[in-house]
Amino acid sequence: MSLPDHIASRLRIPVIGSPMFIVSNPDLVIAQCKAGIVGSFPALNARPAAQLEVWLKRITEELAAYDKANPDTPSAPFAVNQIVHKSNNRLQHDLELCVKYKVPIIITSLGAQEPLNEAVHSYGGIVLHDVINQKFAHKAIDKGADGLIPVCAGAGGHAGLLSPFAMVQELREWFDGPIALSGCIATGRSVLAARAMGADVAYIGSPFIATKEANADSGYKDMVVNSGAEDIVYTNYFSGVHGNYLGPSVANAGYDPKDLPEADPSKMDFGSNDDEGKDDKPKAWKDIWSAGQGIGAIKSVEAAGDYVARLIREYEQAKAELK
User: Fold this and answer.
1) Is the peptide bond before 285 cis (omega within 30 degrees of 0)?
2) Which of 18, 48, 115, 158 has the smallest number of CB atoms closer than 10 Å to its CB?
3) How far is CA 308 from the centre of its chain?
């Protein structure tokens, strides 16, 4: 595993819980880390901006207390996602707080920025950047990112169209650093498959929507439980960037999931400026619910720790079966 040892050694299974807009919160992050995987959240989920320091203080203090009480099974590190796109007018403020609290892992999206990477490196943190193709992957590494998150076909939220087999294969031709693979991973067997493919860790988001700790509407959680791969719609209509959404939520908002127009990419909307409700268009992910194609493996709403424990059992069983 090419993740730094101080991170890899604290994972009970090679998994990062991906940051989900609105859904990820301190309760979920803390539960994920205590269960033995990297927990993460988007900085923009903490609103107003001053709330971010409250979240960072709580997470660091609760995990430190847990580690003191459980020295033989300490918590996994946590991560914060930063949207680097120019529409995010909070980036500098949020980055300064991450530096103050020495967040172990920063996940960057929608733009690679050398000053951000340097700031994270100044205290020993690492930067993982999500990408959908080789061009953006090269750009991220050239600008100082430590690792890559290939967001492949079928991943929840903003995602690309490339097969994970093709994407990881081509990345490994030139990059030997950390890779966290995203796209339809929902079982321990698929975590092992990601490792066999050449990834260091699996990057799992959608299954955590249907957990008790997630900040998701009960209807959203139930829809994840009751939906499968064929219910996922790939469109750029709601945010300006192509992503995967639950078709039933699109229909509930009054749209035909099979007949959505193309959006203007120059008018991207990531909810970074607290402008919800200024027009009549449904918001991703407030009204239009995101999920990936792997949700068919999710059969009930459960505690995050229970889901991770199941992943670990499945992972170990799959490894044993291959011996």
Assistant:
1) yes
2) 48
3) 15
Beta bridge partner(s), residue 288? 284
DSSP sequence for 36-105: TSBEEEEGGGSSSTTHHHHHHHHHHHHHHHHHHH-TTSPPPPEEEEEE-STT-TTHHHHHHHHHHTT-SE
How far, in whole angstroms, is CA 249 from its chain's centroid? 21
- In angstroms, rounded to a whole number, what is the distance separating the alpha carbons of residues 231 and 244? 10
Q: Where is 16: in which H helix or E strand?
A: strand 15-17
- CA of residue 299 relative to chain centroid, distance: 21
60, burial (CB in 10 Å: exposed 0-12, middle 13-18, buried 19+): middle
- pTM here is 0.93
108 phi, psi to nearest 5 deg: -105, 145
Report DSSP letters for 285-296, one per residue: TTTBPB--GGGG
- What is the Cα–Cα distance from 9 to 208, expressed in whole angstroms? 23
Task: Tell me what percent of the chain is helix, strand and coil, each rounded to the nearest 5.
Answer: 40, 15, 45
Residues 198-229 have pLDDT tens digits of: 999 999 999 999 999 999 999 999 999 999 99
> What's 110's DSSP letter?
S
pLDDT digit string (tens) for 130-145? 999 999 999 999 999 9
DSSP per-residue letters across 171-209: HTTT--S-BEEESS--SHHHHHHHHHHT-SEEEE-GGGG
